[in-house]
Design goal:
It holds the Pfam family SMC_N. GO terms for molecular function: ATP binding; ATP hydrolysis activity; DNA binding. The protein is built from 19 helices and 25 strands. The protein has 1190 residues and is α+β, with helices and mostly antiparallel strands. It has a domain of 219 residues: P-loop containing nucleotide triphosphate hydrolases (Rossmann fold, 3-Layer(aba) Sandwich). It has a 6-stranded antiparallel β-sheet.
């Protein structure tokens, strides 16, 4: 797995789409640029797209700051997005894709989204995708600015996050947290189920009593149904007789109606017959009318044809005369055109003869010109060759002159160099004396700084010890506060639960809960309800079981102000079927005389309440005695006592009944009496915990204030020490540089003396070479002059040939012009002849066209005369046909009038029959209404039987119910109804509810057992997860420690370092400390905090490389980790970097030249416009090649 591409758009200083492509799976990529150009924004983009939520980590104060905010020249954008493409060919990421693109968008509206391969996902999906891959949250894949020092200054407990990521135990921690949540949920469910189980036990007793009442009620309802079914059966018999009488009358009336319908059908048949004949006559009349219209149309057409033919004959005769005149004119024109054609033919013959003669002359002159041109070309070629030779001589001369000038220049340069070197030697001598003086001064300053550093380190060690002591004291206080806070939270949660149960009256009967819900809803008549007995009494904890046993269900008795309130509440419960309740009303309960038992204590003495309720409590507990145990209860005299109860809840009544046994799991949760007591106790505990927390907060604050003071002094010492250590490094570097400069000066002096000797030898060589070049120049000048003379002779011969060629060309031009003119005349004559031929052909075509038109006109005149004659013969025949058709129309109209009169007679007969039929149908309707009433009564009985007894009419008639005395049976029915009415309301669901609650109790107990088992399983899972995580952490820690020791030695060229787990007994929570011994430092390894700034940075880098070695990540991004290192240490770091680059993709942001020297590819950042970053990329091999070619 490795990075392939990072794409930014609208992110911070990258408003335009910017793409960084990482082509190599391994190697080092550098990102360079001036300060403030946006280099670190690329690191922020990596963090942001991988799910970073901390705005502070992204170097901002608000989420929208990641969006480009605009500049003076550019508007802000509305969205920022970053896409990171990862090569997943090795399937390191848990998806099936070989390439994974992770994206993140944020809009100015505050909306955001995460994407994986273009699909919108949750932040959790991105985090789980990257978890334990070496690039997840808390990993070392991205090392930002100053993060190296942050790692060093962080607490040991915080430092372990890097090791957890390397060990890959984050998934175990995540699973452990999820399992702990499940465990907490299971415990809450178990507590809740225990309360529900108690409530069910309390409800079972009242439900059993209600179920017995419901069974009795069902028996009475069954008896009532038998009697009512018998009465209905008798009533159905009477209705059947009445129904048969109505059926007989309906049948008679329907017979009369049927006879009347037959008569009406005959009349309708006759009427339809007359209508059909009238329709037939109407069709015939319409046909006659159509024929008459057709004859009239034919008459009009014939008259029109006569007029048209007559007019056409006149027009054709006029056109015929005009055509004969046009034919005569065309014949004359043709004769004139033939005469002109013959004249033009003679002219063409003469022109052709002249053109032939000119062409023969032109051919002779062309031959002469060709000979002259060949001679001219030959001379010209000879001149060209000579000039080419001359050019070569000239170039040789120029080269020789250039070399000679170069030698002169070189001679001057060498002379100048000799002078410069002599001056430089003098300067080097002075500089060497200055270096010796500066070395003395720096040595004295170094001794003073070393003494100051030792003093500051001693004081710093003292402050660190004070800080460690105070830190331990603060941890103890915090642990104590955490324990108290945990108890405070537990008690608060318990208090909230109990108060909620008290407010909702959980554990009380349904009727009691309904009453207080109605009071809460301000239902009329409930203002006199003040509470329940359990709420108005206070009982010491040791007597709670005894008082609960003595009162039993009376604990849930509702306390009312008066009898009127009780009556209104009971009515409300009945009307809305909300259950039952027991009431204690003022004036109704008579207080029993207080009994002083011979042994034990009176129950009334251990109970306290408000004055207004004392009569209630005296009536309930005045005759109850409390003893220690059952044995004592059995031996206690019951004279005057209603019952004796024990502290554990056994009861012995005055009637000799004994109640006892195990209370079971239903008593595990808080009882009704204990609920109020526990609420008071919990409030007292919470007040004490609040005071303790406040006291501890004050103490912790004081310690932290002292801690801040120590930190400030440490910070002050650290700053001083840092400046002195920097000065130490600067002095050491200056001394080393002076030593190097002194050696360099000595080497330069020796080199300059050697260079003087070389330059003197060069001067001698240049003098010899100058003489040889001068001799060669003289010889070349003589050869050039001879060539120039020969070229002049050839140019004279070329001018003569050129003159002859010009004369021949002028004569050729004259002949060509004459020939061209003759050809033009020839073309004009040919065009004229062609025009004559076209005109003759056109005239002949017009003559033939006119002749044809004449023939057509004569034929058309003959046809028109024929039509004229035919029209004159047809008109009299059409007039006779019209008269015959008019006679037929009159006859048909007379026959239609006769049928219409017959139809009116039958209409009168039909009206008389309809009047008689309406009277019969009215009587039939009356009987049918009576039948409907009978059927409605049947239907009402049917519905009542179906609704009340689920029986049909057939079931009732077939039943064995017999009524001997109808009136007596009705009396019995009324008695049963009254008895049932007195029992109501009866909770018929109580039978099912009782069985359901028993089943529910079994189910709840099973659920409790399952939850206990689940709780055990979850605890085992947490234990296994802890063990697996510990093993993985220890294994990784040991590997990292070994790599850390090795890399530390490589970077420091000696020394020793190791990592230590501070608390071996708690590996998963323990911090990790770093101990190191640098070369030349103290003999014993000490905490990393005691090292110098540069040593700390190098140690942190060694730790990061050790983590990469233990579990190489796919890539690592480092932002200016070399900031606190000098060039020597950077060189050591780059050696390690090159080693890691062979197996890990490294991306570094730097501005140090030594670090740039090892990168394989560079991305350069610039800011051509304020607030807008641009990027260019270049592979170093390509850059080097370009430089070499240049």
């Amino acid at each position: 797995m490795h990075l392939k591409k990072l794409e930014l758009c609208g992110f911070k200083t990258f408003p335009d789409k910017t793409i960084l492509e990482f082509t190599d799976a391994h190697g080092i990529t550098g990102i360079v640029g001036p300060n403030g150009c946006g280099k670190s924004n690329i690191i922020d983009a990596f963090r942001w797209v991988m799910g970073e939520q901390s705005i502070k980590t992204l170097r901002g104060t608000a989420a929208e700051e990641v969006i480009f905010s605009g500049t003076e020249d550019r508007k802000p954008v509305s969205m920022a997005e970053v896409f990171l493409t990862i090569d997943n060919a090795d399937h390191s990421l848990p998806v099936d894709y070989t390439e994974v693109e992770v994206g993140r968008r944020y809009y100015r509206t505050g909306d955001s989204e995460y994407l994986i391969n273009k699909e919108v996902v949750r932040l959790r999906d991105v985090q789980e995708l990257l978890m334990d891959t070496g690039i997840g949250k808390g990993s070392y894949a991205i090392i930002g600015q100053g993060q190296v020092l942050t790692l060093l200054h962080s607490k040991p407990e915080d430092r372990r996050e890097l090791f957890e990521e390397a060990a890959g135990i984050n998934k175990y921690k995540t699973r452990k947290i999820a399992t702990q949540r499940k465990l907490e949920h299971a415990e809450q469910n178990l507590f809740r189920l225990s309360d529900i189980r108690t409530e069910i036990h309390q409800q079972l007793g009242p439900l059993e009593e209600q179920a017995r009442e419901a069974l009795e009620y069902q028996v009475l309802k069954k008896d009532l149904s038998g009697l009512e079914i018998g009465l209905v059966k008798v009533k159905l018999g009477k209705l059947e007789i009445f129904k048969q009488e109505i059926d007989q009358k309906i049948a008679e009336y329907k017979k009369v109606v049927a006879e009347a319908d037959n008569s009406a059908q005959n009349i309708a048949s006759k009427k339809q017959e007359f209508r059909d004949k009238m329709v037939e006559l109407d069709k015939r009349l319409a046909d006659y009318d159509n024929q008459l219209q057709e004859l009239r149309r034919r008459k009009a057409d014939s008259a029109n044809k006569f007029d048209v033919a007559k007019e056409r004959i006149g027009n054709h005769q006029q056109r015929l005369q005009a055509i004969e005149q046009e034919i005569s004119q065309l014949t004359a024109n043709r004769e004139a055109l033939l005469a002109r054609q013959n004249e033009s033919t003679a002219e063409l013959t003469a022109v052709v003869q002249s053109v032939t003669e000119l062409e023969e002359r032109l051919a002779k002159k062309n031959d002469e010109a060709r000979d002259i041109i060949e001679r001219w070309q030959q001379v010209n070629q000879e001149i060209t060759d000579l000039r080419k030779d001359l050019t070569e001589f000239t170039e040789q001369l120029e080269n020789k002159n250039s070399k000679l000038m170069g030698l002169n220049t070189g001679e001057t340069v060498v002379a100048n160099d000799l002078q410069r070197i002599e001056v430089t030697l003098t300067d080097f001598s002075k500089e060497k004396e200055d270096i010796a003086r500066r070395e003395t001064e720096l040595t004295e300053r170094k001794n003073f700084v070393d003494t100051s550093v030792n003093d500051l380190r001693t004081r710093r060690d003292e402050l660190f010890k004070q800080k460690s002591d105070k830190d331990e004291e603060r941890k103890n206080k915090l642990n104590l506060r955490m324990e108290i806070k945990e108890k405070f939270d537990q008690q608060s949660s318990r208090l909230n639960l109990l108060e909620e149960m008290q407010q909702t009256h959980e554990g009380f009967q349904k009727g009691v809960r309904s009453i207080f819900q109605a009071k809460k809803d301000n239902v009329d008549g409930f203002s006199g309800v003040t509470g329940v007995v359990a709420d108005i009494i206070n009982v010491p904890k040791q007597y709670e079981s005894a008082i609960e046993a003595a009162l039993e269900n009376n604990l849930q008795a509702v306390v009312a102000a008066d009898q009127s309130t009780v009556e209104q509440v009971i009515k409300h419960l009945k009307d809305h079927a909300l259950g039952r309740a027991t009431f204690a009303a003022g004036g109704l309960l008579k207080p029993a005389a207080k009994i002083v038992p011979l042994s034990g204590v009176c129950a009334l003495d251990v109970v306290s309440c408000e004055e207004q309720y004392k009569d209630f409590i005296a009536a309930l507990l005045g005759s109850v005695c409390i003893v220690d145990d059952l044995e004592q209860a059995l031996h206690t005299s019951l004279d005057g006592l209603s019952a004796v109860v024990t502290l554990s809840g056994e009861v012995v009544t005055a009637r000799g009944l004994i109640t006892g046994g195990s209370v079971g799991k239903e008593k595990e949760s808080v009882s009704l009496l204990g609920r109020q007591r526990e609420i008071i106790e919990l409030k007292k505990d919470i007040e004490q915990y609040t005071a303790d927390l406040s006291r501890l907060d004050g103490e912790i604050k004081n310690i932290e204030q002292l801690f801040v003071e120590i930190e400030e002094e440490l910070k002050d010492h650290a700053n001083k020490l840092k400046h002195l250590e920097i000065e130490q490094g600067t002095i050491a570097n200056d001394l080393a540089r002076l030593s190097i400069d002194r050696s360099k000066l000595e080497r330069n002096i020796a080199a300059n003396r050697q260079e003087i000797s070389q330059q003197q030898g060069e001067m001698s060589r240049i003098a010899v070479e100058k003489q040889n070049l001068q001799n060669a120049l003289d010889e070349l000048i003589e050869q050039k002059e001879a060539k120039e003379k020969f070229i002049l002779e050839k140019e004279t011969a070329l001018q003569q040939a050129d003159t002859e060629k010009t004369k021949v060309n002028e004569l050729l031009t004259e002949i060509k012009i004459s020939s061209t003119n003759a050809l033009g005349v020839k073309r004009q004559i040919e065009l004229k002849l062609e025009s004559f031929r076209d005109n003759i052909r056109q005239t002949e075509a017009q003559h033939a066209e006119k002749t044809t038109e004449k023939e057509n006109l004569l034929k058309s005149i003959a046809e028109a005369e024929s039509i004229l004659q035919s029209s004159q013969n047809v008109l009299p025949e059409i007039d006779g046909s019209i008269e015959q058709m008019q006679v037929k129309v009159g006859s048909a109209n007379q026959e239609r009038s006769r049928y219409f009169n017959d139809l009116e007679v039958y209409d009168r007969m039909e009206k008389e029959r309809n009047d008689a039929d309406r009277e019969v149908r009215s009587k039939l309707s009356n009987e049918e209404v009576k039948m409907a009433k009978v059927e409605a009564e049947y239907e009402e009985i049917s519905h009542r039987m179906a609704n009340e007894y689920n029986l049909t009419i057939a079931d009732v008639l077939q039943s064995e119910a017999v009524v001997e005395d109808y009136d007596k049976t009705q009396d019995e029915v009324e008695k049963l109804k009254r008895r049932i009415k007195r029992m109501e309301p009866v909770n018929l669901l109580a039978i099912e509810e009782f069985e359901a609650q028993k089943e529910r109790l079994v189910f709840i107990e099973t659920q409790c057992e399952d939850l206990e088992k689940s709780k055990t399983d979850l605890l085992n899972i947490i234990k296994e997860l802890d063990q697996t995580a510990i093993e993985a952490f220890k294994e990784t820690f040991n590997i990292v420690n070994e790599h850390f020791k090795r890399i530390f030695v490589d970077l420091f060229k000696g020394g020793y370092a190791e990592l230590q787990i501070l608390d071996e007994s708690n590996v998963l929570e323990s911090g990790i400390e770093i101990y190191a011994k640098v070369p030349g430092g103290p003999k014993k390894a000490q905490s990393m905090t005691l090292l110098s700034g540069g040593q700390k940075s190098l140690t942190a880098i060694a730790l990061l490389f050790a983590l990469l070695s233990a579990r190489p990540g796919p890539f690592c991004i480092m932002d200016e980790i070399d900031d606190a290192l000098d060039d020597l240490n950077i060189g050591r770091v780059t050696e390690i970097l090159k080693e890691f680059a062979s197996r890990t993709q490294i991306i570094i942001i730097t501005h140090r030249q030594a670090m740039m020297s090892v990168v394989d590819m560079i991305f350069g950042l610039t800011m051509p416009q304020k607030g807008v970053s641009k990027i260019v990329s270049l592979k170093l091999p390509e850059a080097e090649k370009a430089l070499l070619e240049a």
